[in-house]
Amino acid sequence: MSDDPIREGFGRRLTDAVRARGPLCVGIDPHPSLLMAWDLDESPRSLERFSMTAVEALAGEVAVLKPQSAFFEVYGSAGIAVLEKVIREARQAGALVLLDVKRGDIGSTMTAYAMAYLDEQAPLAADAVTVSPYLGYGALAPAIGIAEQTGRGVFVLARTSNPEGAGLQQSVHGSGDSVAQYVVDSAAETNAGAEPLGHVGVVAGATIHPGELDFSRLNGPILAPGLGAQGATVQRLHEVFGDALPNVLPATARDILRHGPTPEGLRAATNRVRDELTQLLNA
């Protein structure tokens, strides 16, 4: 992938990537326990070795790579430099990069976050980012607008896979629906009329209850974390998402990364999960 400005919308680019490489998002999460499992210490040099091994093994294989920004930020400027390299080299190898930052703020601060991750000239510019709507969906307008202008995407937290999220996300919104459903419906309004998909996705864990959310109007991608370490299985995806399954992007990290440090181990684990997902969609 070149550094030229993006010409197509994120919904089209994601659809094409999934068609070419299968429906799988692999996280790059340099958690201390994984560094230890790879016989690495907690240093910027080890962070780079871990992350670039994952990029080199997987960026040419999967549709989407998802670096978790927090695990890079903890190393300060040295970690951010590694994150810039991860984004740059993963995109050059053809993977879309979804930067997991979960930012959410108001006004000029939200605009600054959007410029940091979605502007064409930003060193940390990714293909998409995760954002939090809990200061109001409307507060995300700067990120949603800049993403549309630059051919990038945003994934809005709706119903996350962590158990602590249920109390807030399942509570009743002023619309009468759950807060999570309100987020999904708000994204649907933004995506109305887009082909083949809009640039606003939602995050809905693969661990949620079947039928809990109605995705029928979303017209956008659904990032579904929770495969593997959090207990969700490939088979459960159909139960949870039903007719929306073709737009689901399942995400996993530790279940792939624990098969390192060899590139061969990482690729074998990735191909196994991707083949299961492809068979599920074809069925």
Keyphrases for this structure?
283 residues; alpha/beta; TIM Barrel; 12 helices; 8 strands
Tell me what the structure shows.
- GO terms for molecular function: orotidine-5'-phosphate decarboxylase activity.
- Pfam families: OMPdecase.
- Keywords: Decarboxylase, Lyase, Pyrimidine biosynthesis.
- Its EC number is 4.1.1.23.
- This protein has 283 residues and is an alpha/beta fold.
- The protein has a single domain, classed as Aldolase class I (TIM Barrel, Alpha-Beta Barrel), CATH 3.20.20.70.
- The chain has helices at residues 10-21, 32-37, 44-58, 70-73, 77-92, 107-118, 141-150, 166-169, 179-191, 234-241, 254-257, 263-282; strands at residues 25-28, 64-67, 96-103, 128-131, 153-159, 200-204, 222-224, 248-252.
- The protein has an eight-stranded parallel beta barrel with strand order 1-2-3-4-5-6-7-8, surrounded by six helices.
- The mean pLDDT is 94.
Report a brief summary of the structure:
The protein is an alpha/beta fold and 283 residues long. It is 44% helix and 14% strand. Strand 3 (96-103), helix 6 and strand 4 form a beta-alpha-beta unit.
